[in-house]
Amino acid sequence: MKAMILDRFGPPETLEWREIATPVPAAGEVLIRVRAAGVNPVDWKIAEGGLARLFPCGFPLIPGWDAAGTIAALGEGVTGFSIGERVWSFCRKPDIQWGTYAEYVTMDASAVAPMPANASFAQASTIPLAGLTAWQSLFDVAQVRPGQSVLIHAGAGGVGSLAVPLAKWAGATVIATAGAANHDYVRGLGADHVIDYAAQDFVTEVKALCPDGVDFAYGTVGGEVLTRSYQTVKPGGILVSITDKTDKDLGEQLGIRVKYLFVKPDGGQLRRLAGLMDSGILAAPEIEEFPLPHAAEALDRSKSGHVRGKIVLTVD
């Protein structure tokens, strides 16, 4: 098979389009013929060595954690899937080496699920990492319920554009931050209020809408934005970060819960997300496509920030 390969950590331009042996699924795994691979900021961080302290990394290294494609082979003991079936998966493994920027990838069958019926491969590839991140943050950790108030940063981004409609579906009042050019887009996703992070102070605006603070603040942006977000949460509420580690001491001082979440693969939750897409509650975000051999260009685009929706690598 062909894949985008790193022989060492480096900038996106370090990637090479090369031939490599097609993987064989082990017991309990499936082999996916990748038709589209979603691009996430973690991909260029992996390429540059940014996750080497968290995960064992091996070379040659193929980046990529999101995939949509078809079942090409079944490992021993795998049931419930058929050859040629359209599937999607968040393909994060215990070690970082054999990712989805390739024509084929193996993955534990428990992390694989049938694709939404009406989604294209490109659309489906945008969802697994971001969708599972949003789902696990909102429902596994924050346990968002009807009538609660939610602040979602970067509502037009990859995770934010899925967290907004999921929070709305859960019955919450949704406040999102976004640049002025994306306000209509984010309102269309279901946000009740949109704050222009460049022209408005989001803490002041949130307090004007919810004087006691929100029940849940979602830190999809780190740094000062995350630090100031602690001020937006009501006592007894929760702040969840998917960027920087949370400050437990500050949370205790303010009387709020804090949690850092690192998303986990989950085929069952992907089935739930597929059902929401099939019912029209959840939609794929806007997509910018690049052919797989142009992965370096796609990662440079991701590094630039302010991407609306998701970037996708397509595989012939």
UniProtKB/TrEMBL annotation:
InterPro entries: ADH-like_N, Chloroplast_QOR, ER, GroES-like_sf, NAD(P)-bd_dom_sf. It comes from the Bacteria. CDD domains: MDR_like_2 (cd05289). One of its GO terms (molecular function) is oxidoreductase activity. Residues 10-313 form the Enoyl reductase (ER) domain. SMART domains: PKS_ER. This is NADP-dependent oxidoreductase.
